[in-house]
Amino acid sequence: MKEKIAAILKTLPERPGVYLMRDSEGKIIYVGKAIKLKRRVSSYFRHHLSPRLNKLVELIEDISIIRTESEAEALIVEAKLIRRYSPFFNIALKMSDRYPYIKITDEDFPRVEITRHKAKDNALYLGPFVDAGNIRNLMRLAERYFPLRVCKSRITPNKNKRPCVEYNLGHSMGACAALCTRDEYRERVADIVLLFEGKSAELVARLKKRMNESAKNLEFEKAAYYRDTVRAIWRLSRQKISSALQEDLDNATWKVLNRVQELLGLEVLAWRIDAFDISHTHGHDTYGCCIVFEQGRPSPNLYRRFKIRSLNDGEINDFQSIYETVKRRYSHVIDNTEPAPQLALIDGGPIQLEYAQKALQELGFELPLIALAEREELIFLPGKPNEPLRLERDDPALQLFQRLRDEVHRYAITTHRNAREKRMRHSKLFDISGIGKKKATELLVKFGSAEKVAALSPEELQKVPGIGQKLAEKILSALQEEESTK
After folding, report:
1. Where exactly are the structural domains of the chain?
2. Cβ–Cβ contacts within 10 Å for residue 366, how many?
3. How many CB atoms lie within 10 A of CB 435?
4. What dotted CATH number matches 428-485?
5. pLDDT, tens digit, for every residue of 190-202?
6. What is the mean pLDDT of the segment spanning 14-40?
7. Angle subtended by helix axes 220-235 and 132-145, to nearest 10
8. 394, exposed or middle or buried, with CB in 10 Å at 0-12, 13-18, 19+?
9. DSSP designation for 385
10. Does residue 484 surpass a pLDDT of 60?
């Protein structure tokens, strides 16, 4: 066995992923997948089963890997790379012949279908799905809680038309009989797209909003329906195939990721990279944020924000904030509710990096870390505070790190600003015991603001129905006390 190959085999993890074998010219000659990378790749060099395999092993000069969260993700990554590079030793693999897609038809009132053929027909294709059990579970959930029409006939809504038996069975919205509007139908289609894309959190947020609106309007049966739907979605395990994996990996991105791996001496290709930043105003509304790039591009559905709990309001400690954010972020990775990255970037210098590393050590979670200091664009590595990397401005690795830093900075500022504005919009009226949300809202509608209410005399305030002398005095006392503390 070649010395370089032997050294590479020792570093491979017993984790799922994809391996790429290259020849002396750096050309990819074979791509494979494995549940346990070390065991699978090492097997090539222990026994040879055929002249073809013997020849492959003879030509291998380098091996790189892409570690994935699961075998299912490895299947998709493998297929994408085979289609992109057509390695000589790979048997032809066409994903469209092997894995099914969910198809949303291109019609005024779309239908949901399962297909293995991705045609150029303006339909929306979701997938591919490598787990047959998962797609069956999703389809059953969609049919029960998000039913669309099942007939293939052209829909022309007619109020005088009697709905079909599928409507009576709860398998259709009755669009043909004008029992739903086109907008209502399209809203349900959008729900289904979120469901099959694995965006459970976003879908649940939409459903909870409708549930609250239904309860507010005393539509308790509809509210119960939304509640049951939310419960069903959370019961169903979320498919961990990210949307970024649905697109082919271009050559430029491949070169950048290889450059990052070479620069940092990573054992695996940094397929997924996290970036962290903190934002606050003089210690108020402090948030720690994490954004994710996959294949060198943002994956917004994996972005996360954390309201810092370990600091008092007005207390400034960015180091502690980084520590808390990193620890909370990767506790979710450890309990298998979030996908793991292959690299994390901290916006800051060596001290921020030290606190992030401390959080990982306490979790017992291993992950390559770097910090990017903004002024001189220095890259700090753990344990080397006085030996930062200084790259040329046109270095593709630095440019990728800058895009990560700028995006997490943008997300952190937006998160903080939204929280601050929400707090500022919150009226003191809602915090006064005995007044209630309904009465507080009436006062705001009638007078325009809490400040204008505070300017009233007790006699003027008592003219509002339901407000007596004691409550009027209580309201004015609370509002005037707030004004005096500003």
Report:
1. 3-93, 101-235, 250-423, 428-485
2. 8
3. 19
4. 1.10.150.20
5. 999 988 887 777 8
6. 89
7. 180
8. exposed
9. E
10. no
Q: At 257, list the tokens.
A: 């990721």
E strands in 68-203? 101-104, 112-115, 124-126
Rounded to 5 degrees, what are φ and ψ at 186? Answer: -65, -35
Tokens in use for 133? Answer: 């059990």
Q: What are phi and psi of 41, to 5 degrees?
A: -65, -40
Following DSSP, what letter does each residue of 203-270 receive, concatenated? HHHHHHHHHHHHHHTT-HHHHHHHHHHHHHHHHSPPP---GGGGSPPPHHHHHHHHHHHHHHT-SS--
pLDDT at position 117 is: 80
356/320 Cα distance (integer angstroms): 9
Positive or negative: CA dihedral 129, 131, 137, 139? positive
Q: Write the pLDDT tens digit of every residue in 73-87.
A: 787 788 878 877 888
Segment 296-300 long-range contacts (CB within 8 Å, at least 24 positions apart): 296/253, 296/256, 296/257, 296/400, 297/244, 297/253, 298/407, 299/242, 299/243, 299/244, 299/272
Write the single-letter amino acid at 264: L
CATH of domain 3-93: 3.40.1440.10
Q: Are strands 62-67 and 112-115 parallel, antiparallel or unpaired?
A: unpaired
- Residue 37's identity, in one-letter code, is L
Rounded distance between C-alpha atoms, residue 154 and residue 421, angstroms: 48
Average pLDDT value for residue range 160-178: 81
Q: Which DSSP helix (H) or strand (E) runs through 32?
A: strand 28-34
What is the DSSP code string of 279-340?
A: EEETTEEEEEEEEEEETTEE-GGG-EEEE--SS-TT---HHHHHHHHHHHHHHHHHTTSS--
**Cα atoms in the Cβ-side hemisphere of radius 13 Å centred on 332:** 15
In whole angstroms, give the CA distance from residue 369 to residue 148. 47
The DSSP 8-state label assigned to residue 429 in this structure reads: G
Backbone angles phi, psi at 90, to 5 degrees: -85, 140
Whether residue 379 contacts residue 372, with contact meaning beta carbons closer than 8 Å, is answered with yes
Furthest CA-CA distance within the chain: 99
Region at 15 (left for phi over 0; alpha for psi -120 to 50; beta for the rest): beta
Tokens matching residue 369: 């870390």
Cross-strand pairs, 294: 272, 297
Structural fold of domain 250-423: Nucleotidyltransferase; domain 5 (3.30.420)
Q: Is the dihedral of CA 214, 215, 221, 223 positive or negative?
A: positive
How far from 151 is each of 22, 163, 171, CA to CA, in Å? 51, 12, 11
Average pLDDT rounded to a whole number, residues 90-116: 74
